[in-house]
Amino acid sequence: MRRTPRCASNRRNSMRSPCDPSAAPLRYFPMIYLKRLLLLACLCVPCAAASRTTNSERVSSPYARQITEQMAKLDSSDAPARARAAEALGFLRAYDAADALVARLRDESAPVRCQAALALGWCGGRDSIAPLLEALGDSDAMTRQGAHVALTNLTGMEFPFVATAPSSERSAQTERWRRWWAQAPRDRAPKDVLELLEGWKSRVRGRSASVSSIYRGPADVLVDGMIGPGFWQTKNVEFPQSCTIDLGRPQTISEVTIHQYGPRFVMTEYALATSLDGKAFDVVERKQGRTPVALARRFPPRTARYVRITSFASVNPIYPTTFFEVQVGAGDGGQASSAETLLWRCERGLRALSVLGGDEATR
Of 173, 121, 179, 177, nearest to 149 (Cα)? Predict the structure, then answer.
């Protein structure tokens, strides 16, 4: 009878093959396999040397070959070929081609200049921004538009620029871009870029919230700067139920907007009050009747640090309160953003951080 290798006894204790050398002690590994491994190791020595030679000769990958081919086409005497090459380098995210694309911003062909500007929006860097600012003054409207698109992509900023506007209007818009770039630090990301990334941790800085009870929460979702998806909710508790917003310091306010969950969860009787010390509250108003989902209340300006909304009745008494966000402002529309808007801000900030970030980028 043929003898079963000892390592087969490890099957119940390992998902590896029973003759996998790592599945059993070396002394049980068949000698014939060891000899074959030694032979293979000897054969690999010249192969490794050949590999080092091959690497030193820099045999390109298919991706690298595409970049090399398109870079060569940038010098073609045929303008459409140059334009196609610039477009392709952008799609390839060919970061090493940034300098060559910057040079093509001065190409005699407008379509080439336009495609070079757009490509820099994908693979340009900090050094590409000044040339793109110059391209805002290009004689071709499409090139100007392409430069603006690239600038917004690289910097995260969205200063307006109308490529087809009269020269005087475009000059004023360009000057705003230039001022911003002139003030941007050269070794780290501008403050404006970092602020784009603050959305996930209370964009409404310095504010906090406290509540009477919680079924769904937490309370700080009321001041996170987002109208959804998170919300604060109370359930199966007695009226009244309330939330109190701490603005962090006394401020002049004249508007409060309560973003409720939906028409089946709105308040039917509520009170709005303010306070300077969080203890003595002055009632701004108390009203009965079905409220809108976005309950916006304006009142004469007053100084307050705390704002309290109290629910005395609701359409569905099981849920006295269900709020997405509470905005408090001075009549300028508040500070909350939709989740979609906040996501877009963060995406812009991350793209810009990859271009402009210094040591702060990792943090």
Answer: 121
| Coil/strand/helix, residue 260 | strand
Tokens 């694309």 found at? 101
**Residue type, position 91, single letter:** F
Distances in Å between the Cα of 174 and the Cα atoms of 105, 181, 183 are 17, 11, 15
CB contact at 8 A, 169 and 207 = no
Tokens of 33: 């396999």
Helix (H, G, I), strand (E, B) or coil at 328: strand
For the purposes of burial, counting CB atoms within 10 Å of the CB of 270, is it exposed (0-12), middle (13-18) or buried (19 or more)?
Answer: buried
Residue 339: half-sphere exposure toward Cβ, Cα within 13 Å: 7
Express each pLDDT in 61-108 by its tens digit.
899 999 999 999 999 999 999 999 999 999 999 999 999 999 999 999
Residue-level length of the chain:
363
Residues 6 or more apart in contact with residue 17 via CB below 8 angstroms? 23
| Greatest C-alpha distance within the chain | 100
DSSP string, 23-61: GS-GGGS-HHHHHHHHHHHHHHHHHHHHHHHHHHTTPPP
Nearest to 177 by CA among 196, 152, 142, 144: 152
Q: What is the pTM of this model?
A: 0.53
DSSP state string for 69-115 = HHHHHTT-S-HHHHHHHHHHHHHTT-GGGHHHHHHGGG-SSHHHHHH
Phi, psi at residue 299, to the nearest 5°? Answer: -155, 165
What beta strand segments (E) does 117-221 contain? 208-211
The whole-number pLDDT of residue 58 equals 43
337 vs 332: CA distance, rounded Å: 13
* pLDDT one-digit tens code per residue, 184-226: 998 888 988 888 876 554 445 578 999 999 999 899 999 987 8
**Strand (E) or helix (H) holding 232:** strand 232-233
Residue 322 contacts residue 162 (beta carbons within 8 Å): no
**H or E, element range at 344:** helix 339-356
